[in-house]
Amino acid sequence: MIAAIIAAAGSGERFGAAIPKALIQLGDRTLIEHAVSAISSVADQIIVTAPSGYEKEIQTLVGDGITVVTGGATRSESVRIGLSKVSADAEYVLIHDAARALASPDLAKRVVAALKSGDVAVIPGLAQTDTVKIVDASGIVTSTPDRAAMRRVQTPQGFTYKLISQAHAQSGEATDDAALVESLGKPVRVIEGEERAIKITTPADMATALQFLGKSTNFKSGVGVDAHHFEAGRQLWLAGLLWPDQDGVEGHSDGDVAAHAICDALFAASGLGDLGSNFGTNKPEYKGASGTTLLKETLALVEKSGYAISHVSVQVIGNRPKIGSRRAEAIASLSTALGGAEVALLATTTDGMGLTGEGKGIAAIASALIYSK
Fold first, then answer.
1. With a cut of 50, which residues of the chain have pLDDT below it?
2. Residues that constitute the known binding site
3. Which residues are annotated as a binding site for a divalent metal cation?
4. Which of 39, 87, 303, 310 has a CA-to-CA distance to 335 between 20 and 30 Å?
């Protein structure tokens, strides 16, 4: 099992914002939503450390399947609070900063791959290309270290659960978690980082981050919604996965509300009609079609019209099934059907209200961001 802690308790003071940094908008989403999206493709459990007083707002943004806790006065204290919530079944822990919102899912996957290959601590880093000077208190240069051996360290950083727990048990303070591991004399592997995983601290950083958001400034967005009644005796397909021992839903196809909502969001963004006009009951070839089949067909139509997918987010609404245990698997299924596109998957309930709250059905709402090729 892989757990992830996202440190998001920073005040945003250096940014000059009146709200916590994690809630600052970057493109179509907040920094914390970007960070969760990148890490959710590999993590079975996600814990977010939030600024005091903003826990409910962040919980609403990231969904019920993610644990939100109040962070501490320092980054290291916040991480220790997050570690106290990590499942005892966890083998590895990723620690990420909401400020590095544009770190890609691929970077997280490479960190995990290195851990699984036998390393106990893995951090991404980039070569130092600028000459670095050491100066004294009066500003006079005292030395010029060799930059060839230097790396600019990034997150997510990955560790075995046992090691990072041991490192933080000393209650030390450090600017990154690897430094605490180093103090134990344990080896820390540095893998190649990525330029887009910049730390967003100032408005100038935000301007740089915006350049990484897409290959074009010609973006279009769309929203899609789908809902179905449960129907006893049918298989439940959701987010491209079969959920055994669960009642399915009625529908012309397999009733995968997550896939259908994504399709409609993509159709809305590209102006290509909707789910009904493209795959409706007047087209018998789609009777019983799987959600992944419809996603693939939708992707082909979107690309044919000259667009590519930047990001897709879908939130499942219902009392069951519980998404958390299969979140990474579901994200992988949806992403594969969409040609490897970045996908975020959230889940929530409606507190007993309406079709989903009364347990009569399941629904989903999705958003899609596409850009002109």
1. 215-216
2. 226-228, 252-253, 260, 274-276, 348-351
3. 226, 228, 260
4. 87
CATH number of the domain enclosing 263: 3.30.1330.50
Domain count, the chain: 2
Q: Same structural domain for residues 154 and 237?
A: no
Domain boundary among 211, 239, 271: 211
pTM of this prediction?
0.64
**Residues whose CB falls within 8 Å of the CB of residue 270, separated by 6 or more in sequence, listed in order:** 220, 222, 301, 302, 305, 307, 370
- pLDDT tens digit sequence for 156-174: 999 999 999 999 998 788 9
Per-residue pLDDT, 109: 95
In this predicted structure, what is the pLDDT of residue 14? Answer: 67
SS (HEC) of the chain: CEEEEEECCCCCCCCCCCCCHHHCEECCEEHHHHHHHHHCCCCCEEEEEECCCCHHHHHHHHCCCCEEEECCCCHHHHHHHHHCCCCCCCCEEEEEECCCCCCCHHHHHHHHHHHHCCCCEEEEEEECCCCCCEECCCCCEEECCCHHHCEEECCCEEEEHHHHHHHHCCCCCCCCHHHHHHCCCCCCEEEECCCCCCCCCCHHHHHHHHHHCCCCCCEEEEEEEEEEEEEEEEEEEECCEEEEEEEEECCCCCCCHHHHHHHHHHHHHHCCCCHHHHHCCCCHHHCCCCHHHHHHHHHHHHHHCCEEEEEEEEEEECCCCCCHHHHHHHHHHHHHHCCCCCEEEEEECCCCCHHHHCCCEEEEEEEEEEEEC
